[in-house]
Hints:
This protein is mostly helical. The protein contains 16 helices and no strands.
Amino acid sequence: MGAYILRRLLLIIPTLLGIMIINFTLVQFVPGGPIEQIIAQVQGQGDVFEGFAGGGGEVASGSGGGSDEYAGARGLPPDFIEELEREFGFDKPPVERFLNMLWNYMRLDFGESYFRSISVIDLVLEKMPVSISLGLWSTLIAYAISIPLGIKKAVQDGSSFDTWTSGVIIVAYAIPGFLFAILLLVLFAGGSYWQIFPLRGLTSDNWEMLSWPAKIADYFWHIALPVIASTIAAFATLTLLTKNSFLDEIKKHYVMTARAKGLTERRVLYGHVFRNAMLIVIAGFPAVFIGVFFSGSLIIETIFSLDGLGRLGFEAAVARDYPVIFGTLFIFGLIGLVVGILSDLMYVLVDPRIDFEKREG
Length: 361
């Protein structure tokens, strides 16, 4: 297993390099880079973040070198355009910018946001509590509900309980998350009916003045509706996956053999079926959590006025804040590849019979 893990770790390097090369190359053809944003703002035609900070890292530009290449730059002094290029690092060839970027990333230097005057790492850490809250609690709640429900549906397959719960699950899966979020706001956040939960934010304004028990209660009070809204689709998918996994195992010969030996139904279900049926569900936990964490729904964050990684990525893309775009891409790409290895380790932990080295051999 050690050799397999080592090979997977070594594969991270070319995989991550390929991701960065593809995205860096694509950005070269995207119009409206940060210099165009600044030019538009100077001429009163744009709407980007106030000010800009130079030295944000050697990254790609949607446009290349001279002032003639920037749409809308006519009438502006060439020296001004050249100064912008130096500030953003666009006075260098693309290959040199890319190599400098990789060298900085190897030293864990992800640069500084062009428009926020804050380092990319600090910016990600600032937004991370919201995304962790949504990702962690959504995943835990989905697993806590889906696994017992899926097992019961498998055991009672074809019963009235299985039928009506399947109807509820299908409806829940069909409802878009953002629409369900709006419904929750209308019903429980003072939209038209009850003012039970707060409308925005992760904590109250006086959170620092509260006692620890009150802080915990305030946190869960604020996060309740966003978590419910982001859990709805994952809950439906995971329940059906659990049910189908159990049904497949229940029909196998070893289950009939265990029953023939006189074992109780509970012993058969949780002593034999559970481990095999839950392999794909439990082993996929790291990937599910990271998927929810990374994808942190932009729409749900916007609806509930939460400032997380979803909104950060959207705002960086709109403003062409390349240090933020490429820095977060590198960080999350690296984490995602490592989580892929952790998922394989989870498979071995749940079922020691799995040997990836023999499979590769």
